[in-house]
Amino acid sequence: MKLIGSLTSPFVRKVRIVMAEKKLDYQLVLEDVWSSDAILKMNPLGKVPCLVMEGQDSITGAVFDSRVIVEYVDTLSPVGKLIPERGRERTEVKTWEALADGVMDAAVLALLENKFAGRPPEQRCEAWVQRQLDKVSAACAAMNQGLGDKAWCWGNHFSLADISVGCALGYVDFRFPAIDWRGANPNLARHFEKLGARQSFIDTAPPAA
């Protein structure tokens, strides 16, 4: 399998961590979607991550969107099941993932509004940026409350919920280091520190600026 992505995308990082925790082999193919249209051959949306099945080289052999990819990858090996198969348990883990993905979406939108080269400074909207960062703050507060004093986001073991939360918080630290989400969310800060000690998180940390 080939995973097309970048070292800075939190969605790619989520897939990479899942692959590592599942102990699956793959080839990471780096792609800058902002400077090349090569990704369109595999994903018409022009986005990463994109997982390409072995021996395939067209859209029909590709899986895209991080939620779809991790869902598929979790079925490839019985090692470290990350997503419950059914029922309320599955819904809870996927809801954690959706919340964390929302943080990443909002942070990416805020970053693009400030940094996208195609938008001149006079066209950038600070109110839009603040609206996205308010979503980040609200989601962090919700995750902090949901976590409480539990060892893991869901159940009594590590799951996709924890991976998603860790990737979201890591991306906020990476792109918006001035945001002090830890100060108001001690439960989340504690959990993030624990997640950061896992080898899968260490190996996929975004490059230093």
From TrEMBL:
Residues 1-81 form the GST N-terminal domain. Gene3D superfamilies: 1.20.1050.10, Glutaredoxin. Transmembrane segments: none annotated. It holds the Pfam family GST_C_2. InterPro entries: Glutathione-S-Trfase_C-like, Glutathione-S-Trfase_C_sf, Glutathione_S-Trfase, Glutathione_S-Trfase_N, Thioredoxin-like_sf. Residues 86-209 form the GST C-terminal domain. It comes from the Bacteria. PROSITE patterns: GST_CTER, GST_NTER. This is Glutathione S-transferase N-terminal domain-containing protein. The lineage of its organism: Bacteria, Pseudomonadati, Pseudomonadota, Betaproteobacteria, Burkholderiales.
